[in-house]
Design a protein that fits this description.
about 475 residues; alpha/beta; 16 strands; globular
Amino acid sequence: MLPAAVCRASGSVTKELIPMNGPISGALQGGDGGGGGGGGDASSPAIEAFDEYLAGPFKTFVDKSAALGQEVSEITPAVEQAFKSLREFLVIVSQSKKPDEATFQGLLGPMSAKIGEVQSFKEKNFRSKQSNHLAGLAEGMPCLGWVTMVPKPCPYIKEMRGAAEFYTNKVLKEFNNTDGGKPQVEWARSWIAALSELEKYVKDHHTTGPAWNPRGGDAKAAKPAPAPAPAPAASTGGGGASTGAPSGTAKLGLLSELSKGGAVTSGLKKVDKSQMTHKNPALRAGAVVPAGAVAPKAAPAAAKKTEVKKPPVLELQGKKWDCSYQDGNKGIIIETEGANQTIYIFKCTNSVIQVKGKVNAITLDGCKKTSIVFGDCVAAFEVINSTSVQCQTTGKVQTISIDKTDGAQIYLSKESIDASVVTAKSSEVNVSIPNLDDPEGDMIECPVPEQFKSVWNPKTKKLETTMTESI
């Protein structure tokens, strides 16, 4: 099956290829299948189904967010507006022919802006008590980019839902079966349910991506409002490169460019043979630099962005210890007063932390070359976005979670031999376990597998995954 972009670039044979390219090019001709969203107005079956989704699972999520209060309720209007922008986009799809790439990216502008707003809000409020809630929202919002993932939008939504679920599971773990924790649990479940129902909607009505209406009008004329211009690409001229993270518009723009397939190079200028130096010796001779010629002074390099060094923090905020921005501090001691306190360690470098007393949960986030020793940890010990860290427990811990970390050495105590070690997107993770048969107390070091092999089993109709042994 050929991508729609290939058909578009084929010139005179386009009309012959389109019938073979049904789902991808919307060849159901406005039907609601394989897209689907055809129909020529906002009352098409696909739009009616999306309205039911907004009034059902998504409204439940919005109501739960409003009841939760604080930062979650503050950012929820941006989430709600992003989904409304998706509805406006789908209405345009049902009314219009497929537009050019510039118009397509412009249509995604309002939705992309709201995705970026949610992600920026999460970064600004990383110390919030609802940091896991905000991370779950920020990780799930890119699922709206399914409109660019032709011809397989559903797996993309599922992947984004999984990323969000990583953080909502933390909310469930923290608040499940606790006093006053029911609203938190219901909120986490409502967000995942909203993403799951979105996947079902897309599977039913836009199986291979948005189906444009071949009998529709111009998408530019159907636009409900002018969309903000997509983020500019990196300039090769005098402009400096952006130092921030790519905006939501830029991400969706990149996805739509990649989805063009072979036609992504269709805009390149063809060079005539007379302009090729390897085929024209005269050009090579004329390009010799005269002796003594002074090379122009290179433009001064743009100043590197220096990270502002923030003052170190070590304080108890309610029931949460905040240990942040410690650099080269080898003598940090945190004495907890009960198993209901948590410890959050953020952006620490070349530091050693000792925890005395029982604690509910410990999180290492964005740390480098940092070591921690702790006793009993009731819920879980977590390492996120860190590099070259060492962690030792002298007491009891049930779960150790390591995510997006390169280089982690875990030392278990005799009481924690049965602990679960969960890793995701991490490398160079080693777990040292006490050897109960060794009187000298030496430990057994076990590397956590990083490479796996998956084979399709035609009998069970499932992928069977096994660890790949190192050679």
